[in-house]
Design a protein that fits this description.
The protein has 2 domains: 269 residues, Zn peptidases (Aminopeptidase); 125 residues, 3-Layer(bba) Sandwich (Glucose Oxidase, domain 1), CATH 3.50.30.30. Helix content is 30%, strand content 25%. It has an 8-stranded mixed beta sheet, sandwiched between helices. The chain has an 8-stranded mixed beta sheet with strand order 3-2-9-5-6-7-8-4. Helix 9 links the parallel strand 16 and strand 17. It is elongated, with a radius of gyration of 24 Å. The protein binds zinc ion (ZN). The site of zinc ion (ZN) has 5 residues, from helix 7. Zinc ion binds next to helix 7.
């Protein structure tokens, strides 16, 4: 019995106050990164499932939709790989996701090709470069681009990367496989391969890749809480919920830091303001299509659900899963008065260090709001977390070590914003 009482006491103390809830944030990250959500992209209805989950969280928190639905629907085209791409080097099969990936815009190709090795010497040595250009063999071959970081002849390198010599395809040897999203196909197929799997003595590559450009219907998810004193003026929180999705049937990109972490903060803030009624109205928007080129936030700024001029301030959150090395505010130098308020909040709570300032940057969903004259910051946390746009950006690797501090900084900054 005493044991039971102890347990009850422990549970009560471990259950955080609703609305500033690291355990809830962690659960959101775990959920959104699970295989069911398929990397919140373009196969297996990944981003739709994530949108439904966010909608359910908004409803539970008591947010109201703008109009009759939490969803704002729109569409765009995207290149997808419905089946697993295959590569063999001299007969050895490489493992998708671990050894190689196709570039996001890679087009369909099936066949066996000779390999032509290209390194910094090929490009920087005029004699070798001439020999390479004169060698018409590469027109039916794959170029293997290796260790080109130190190439001095940048123009020649650009020509090769753009495939101006019309090789059958390009393989780039990279230490880190890093994926993205393409809204159309490249003019030629290309792949990233990890070092040690291909060498100057490798002869043949066998390629079997199928991709297609689909028209993808998607949705931003938006809701709000009415303010007590200034209901017609808004503080807006945004975070993109999409990530890169899947390649074929087996490789998916969980996107824990990018940006399940930002969605977790967004949802936690929503439940916080639902129980701590704000002076201003507070809106929450989860965008789709960020990884495809800020498409959801661009669509929103062209089709806003309420007047953009009624936004007092917008806070965009992307990459919120670390913090041991501080926080950066993009647009800090554009809005020095608002940055001053942020500094006051950070210093008085002793939350995150350092607090870095950046200027304007087209690197997340705040950007088009900024261009439309909406005052905004984009916050991202920094720490020792090396995984970016790769399958290892996983929930169980994400530290979230300064989650609470970041939450409290944002909350106190909003309080500063509410003070004229
Ligand atoms: Zn992101």
């Amino acid at each position: 019995m005493r044991k039971l009482i102890c347990l009850v006491v422990v549970v009560v103390f471990l259950t955080p106050v609703k609305g500033q809830n690291p355990a809830y944030a962690r659960k959101v990250v775990d959920t959104l990164c699970s295989p069911w959500f398929a990397g919140r992209g373009y196969l297996k209805d990944g981003d739709l499932k994530a949108a439904e989950y966010i909608k359910a969280q908004f409803t539970e928190a008591g947010l109201k939709p703008f109009g009759s639905s939490y969803f704002q629907q729109y569409g765009f085209t995207v290149n997808v790989f419905p089946t697993d791409p295959d590569i063999y080097i001299d007969g050895d099969r490489l493992t998708l996701g671990a050894d190689f990936i196709p570039e996001a815009g890679c087009r369909t190709l099936n066949g066996t090709f000779e390999l032509v090795w290209v390194d910094s010497e090929t490009i920087d040595d005029p004699r070798k470069y001439k020999k390479f250009v004169d060698d018409t063999r590469f027109r039916r071959s794959f170029l293997v681009l290796n260790n080109l970081n130190r190439v001095k002849e940048k123009n020649l390198l650009k020509k090769i990367r753009n495939n101006e010599f019309k090789a059958a395809g390009i393989v780039e040897v990279v230490t880190k496989l890093m994926w993205s999203v393409a809204t159309r196909q490249d003019m030629f197929p290309s792949f990233q391969i990890r070092p040690g799997l291909i060498s100057p003595t490798s002869k043949l590559i066998k390629v079997d890749v199928f991709s297609q450009v689909n028209t993808h219907q998607t949705q931003n998810v938006a809701g709000f809480i009415k303010g007590l004193e200034k209901p017609d003026s808004f503080i807006v929180f945004t975070a993109h919920y999409d990530h890169l999705g899947m390649i074929g049937k087996s490789v998916y990109f969980p996107g824990a830091n990018d940006n399940a972490s930002g969605v977790a903060m967004l949802l936690d803030l929503a439940s916080y303001y639902a129980t701590h009624k704000p002076k201003y109205s507070v809106a929450f928007i989860a965008f789709a299509g960020e990884e495809a080129g800020l498409l959801g936030s661009y669509y929103y700024t062209q089709n806003p659900l309420f007047n953009l001029k009624s936004i007092r301030f917008l806070i965009n959150m992307d990459l919120m899963g670390t913090g041991s090395k501080g926080i950066t505010a993009v647009n800090a130098t554009v809005y020095p008065n608002f940055f001053n308020k942020l500094e006051i909040a950070n210093t008085s709570g002793n939350y995150l260090s350092p607090l870095n300032q950046r200027g304007k940057a087209q690197n997340s969903d705040h950007y088009f709001f900024s261009e439309m004259g909406v005052p905004c910051f984009f916050f991202y946390l920094m720490g020792d977390y090396p995984y970016y746009h790769e399958p290892d950006d996983k929930a169980d690797k994400l530290p979230m070590e300064k989650y609470t501090e970041a939450f409290l900084l944002i909350r106190d900054f909003v309080t500063e914003l509410e003070t004229p």
